[in-house]
Amino acid sequence: MKPLLDIRNLKKHFPVRGGFFRRVVGQLKAVDDVSFRIPRGQTFGLVGESGCGKSTLGRAILRLHEPTSGRVMLDGTDITALDRRELVAQRRNMQIIFQDPYASLSPRRTVMQTLLEPMEIHRIGTPDSRRRKVLELLDIVGMSSKILHRYPHEFSGGQRQRIGIARALTLDPKFIVADEAVSALDVSVQSQVLNLIARLQREMHLSFLFISHDLAVVQHISHQVGVMYLGKLVEIAPAIDLYRDPRHPYTRALLSAIPVPEPGRKSKRIILEGDVPSPLNPPSGCPFRTRCPEAMPVCAEQLPDLKAIHDGDDPHQVACHLY
Amino acid sequence: MTSPLLRVRDLVVEFSTERGLVRAIDGVSFDIMPGETLGLVGESGCGKSVTSLAILGLIPSPPGRIVSGSIQLQGRELTGLSEAEYRHIRGKEISMIFQEPMTAFNPVFSIATQMIDVLVRHQGMSRRQARNRAIEMLALVGIPAPEKRIDEYPHQMSGGMRQRVMIAMALSCNPKLLLADEPTTALDVTTQAQVLEQIVKLQEELGTSVVLVTHDLGVVAEACDRAVVMYAGRVAEEAPIRCLFEQPRHPYTEGLLKSIPRIREEKLPELPTIPGSVPDLLHLPPGCRFGDRCYKADEICHRREPRLELRSDIAVACHHPNTYAAPAPCPES
Amino acid sequence: METKERTSLWAKAWYKFRRDRIGMVSLGVVLLYLVIALGVWLGLWGQDWSSIEGPMWAPPGPEHWLGTNIIGQDIFERAIYSTRTAFDVGMVVAILSTLLGGLLGALSGYFANSWVDELILWLMGVLDAIPFYLFVAALAYALQGNPYAMHIAMIATFWTTTSRLVRGEVIKLKNFEFVEAARAIGLPQRLIIFRHITPNTFHILLVQATIVFVSAIKSEVILSFLGLGITHGVSWGLMIAESTQEVQAGHFSNFVTASTFLFVLVMAFNMFSDSLQDALDPKKVSA
């Protein structure tokens, strides 16, 4: 089956300027040669620690950040090749849900204005049908229609996040990037919003790129999971495989580091030494080798390719010299 | 039974806001025993941070005010102390570490200067002695090459490194109590694991009592002996850690434990949730504060607010607490 | 679970402002002046400011409340009429320079580090580098006889502060996720700037407008005193200019009246502006 989203060798480098004339003195490789696919109606979980480039990747796919090179195919259309007008038209198909519910809604616009705006811009429907759509969406995300004329500051974090989700759905997109969409919420509300996203994904047959630093959250919602480190994907696998049989030493360390809410069950923890290297000055060879408990001489010389360790429809891929 | 190091009784703190008087914590009581790690858990707005600020005498006034209640450190009443008196206690007897280590340091001074100043002031050491002690502390929290790194500035260090320096600084005066407010929340998982490990290790070595304020039950399970679960300004439940996690009495604790996303063998079709959201402290429901969201709530819950009832070493504020046939393996603390 | 109040941010700010006693008193004083000015506009009072009605230097009395000046004009009448002049100058300058500053500030902030930004920054730098009174004098000379030379000079110089403030705020705002959301929807830049970003700088514009209003009134007094200001009508500045001869002769009424009218309005407006700033502070409002 053809994937809905096919990302090939995507790169996003930020020029670093320095010196008196603000000349480009280096490249910050926020996203460096990333390729993966998301099938229709599935969720791809993207995990990694802060600064690994996962948010930049999400924005580069939507061209909120202009990618440096590579291709993004959405349902057969090459997003990276579109001119400005075509891109605006394609925005109907791809949307984004943000992390910070306090910053993601325009503060002086009512819920109604916020939810109508996308349909007005894309000239979808009549004023009447737009209104009906807004009410329908509020119902879907579990909000009462009484809130239509309220302002964002009148809502709690969870409620705002629901409004943000409704906004992303107004254009009936095929693909949604959820960037740390539940990270800022309290535990009891977090699970409500997660269930909502999972339900939407099932019922509306949407594809999600679900970005999070929280491996447990990602497991619950994803079909496939990719682990990112210093701008590169180091492991991609079906969710079940990744959690049952993590292969990359970084994935293993990440998994073992999660505090488990079961007292007494001290997991055998792999404590990583040191910190993530600066992306401005990444190590030679494998980016993880400076902290890897299994580093070998070859790791410093050669960048390991992402390769499948077994075949199948959704292969388990690892970028490590151990395999 | 030993007497508690810190005793908090019926503490009430109010803040005047533009929308009216908010009772941020309303009758909070708990004890901290010498050498134990107590978790103070709850969601945003439950009053856990206000409680820790009150213990430190750092409630901003105005708009905040300790209305009633007492905080006793080894029998000495702390509420009502002057700022000057409190300054002798903070840093020396009670130390603190914060969520964002960058804001807790003064960016224009080196780590050495900041650590030495504290030691000279509180311990009366000479600067040379203080420097040696500071290097010793940095080594203890696992800073590589501490004699070099001590002369660095806060911005030259990574987040995890700064958090460790802060722990070293907080512990350098041998405080009796360490208050850690979300010490690992701003850190990445791998760094969080390092720092948490460090706190547990130091706590065991130095015998300091620790209050760990956090929203993360996973962190509590890993690091604490006992935990106080707070909800909307009140204590919902207090219990030794294994009892709390294996046999939660309060429906809120139960719901929280169920809804934490955790790595599971099998994927659940739906994550368990607690319906609704945390109440606005200005518009609390009548009766039990958790009543609107509780699956057990009945008529009495909506009428009368439950009191915190002590049963052996477990305290619950609920009209219908869960009961268990076989008691949980609660280790004597 | 849901908050009871259904309020916009403006309503919240007003609610907060109302509880600020100094703010309310100063607003009352400003409104009183405004009523006086409106009365003059509508021809209800202050119309006899130029007629010579009494002897020179008549003392205050029932006929002339505050006495008369060197040529026998009623000082109170002139001070009343000057209120209108002050509001004329203050409002024209405040509104136009705030609009200009807001617009250029928003553009330079949104397109920060592009040539648009560089151009606007350069223009601000140039205007700020010219001494104000020299600039007015040059402009008055260039626009020979134009009654609005002073207004134009003030607008041309006062917008830069507003523009800088707005630019900084816009740079901050454009990194907010709601701006990214607008881009993700496909909103044209024009709408992003004017529908989503600039409304969040209104608090700055409002406070800046009150500050510029006060500056304009004060500058008018000094410029009129120097002979570069008002050419038609009378203003507190012109009254103070006239009074120099009178003060030497020991008659203070003209000087004291004009200064007091000016002082009270400027004080009240400054306090109003401070309170407004507190009430509109988004950090405090949204909390």
Produce the secondary structure layout.
The complex is a heterotrimer of chains A (323), B (333) and C (287).
Chain A: E1 5-18, E2 23-38, E3 43-47, H1 54-61, E4 69-74, E5 77-78, H2 84-90, E6 94-97, H3 111-121, H4 127-140, H5 157-169, E7 175-179, H6 187-204, E8 207-212, H7 215-221, E9 224-229, E10 232-238, H8 239-244, H9 249-257, H10 297-301, E11 307-310, E12 316-318
Parallel strand pairs in A: 3-8, 3-9, 6-7, 7-8
Antiparallel strand pairs in A: 1-2, 1-4, 4-5, 9-10, 10-12, 11-12
Helix pairs in contact in A: 3-4, 4-5, 5-6
Chain B: E1 6-17, E2 20-32, E3 37-41, H1 48-55, E4 64-73, E5 76-77, H2 83-89, E6 94-97, H3 101-104, H4 111-123, H5 127-140, H6 146-149, H7 159-171, E7 177-181, H8 189-206, E8 209-214, H9 217-223, E9 226-231, E10 234-240, H10 241-246, H11 251-259, H12 299-303, E11 309-311, E12 314-316
Parallel strand pairs in B: 3-8, 3-9, 6-7, 7-8
Antiparallel strand pairs in B: 1-2, 1-4, 4-5, 9-10, 10-12, 11-12
Helix pairs in contact in B: 4-5, 5-7, 7-8
Chain C: H1 9-18, H2 21-41, H3 75-110, H4 115-129, H5 132-142, H6 149-173, H7 177-185, H8 189-197, H9 202-226, H10 236-248, H11 253-280, H12 282-285
Helix pairs in contact in C: 1-11, 2-3, 2-11, 3-4, 3-6, 3-9, 3-11, 5-6, 6-9, 7-8, 9-10, 9-11, 10-11
Task: Provide keyphrases for this structure.
heterotrimer, A: 323 residues, alpha/beta, Rossmann fold, 2 domains, 10 helices, globular, B: 333 residues, 12 helices
Rg of chain B, please? Answer: 21 Å
Number of helices of chain B: 12
Low-confidence stretches of chain B: none
Tally of strands of chain B: 12
| CATH architecture heading of chain C | Orthogonal Bundle
Q: Which protein chains are joined by the largest interface, and how many residues does each one contribute?
A: A-B, 44 and 46 residues
Strand percentage of chain C: under 5%
Looking at how many chains there are and whether they match, the oligomeric state comes to: heterotrimer
Low-confidence stretches of chain C: 1-5
Into how many domains do the coordinates of chain C divide? 1
CATH topology of the largest domain in chain B: Rossmann fold
For the record, the CATH architecture of the largest domain in chain B stands as 3-Layer(aba) Sandwich
Distance between the termini of chain B: 10 Å
Question: What is the CA-atom radius of gyration of chain C, in angstroms?
Answer: 22 Å
What is the averaged pLDDT score of chain B?
87
CATH superfamily of chain C: MetI-like
Structural class of chain C: mainly alpha
H/E series of chain B:
EEEHEEHEHHHHHEHEHEEHHHEE
Q: What kind of sheet is the major sheet of chain B?
A: 8 strands, mixed
CATH classification, class level of the largest domain in chain B:
Alpha Beta
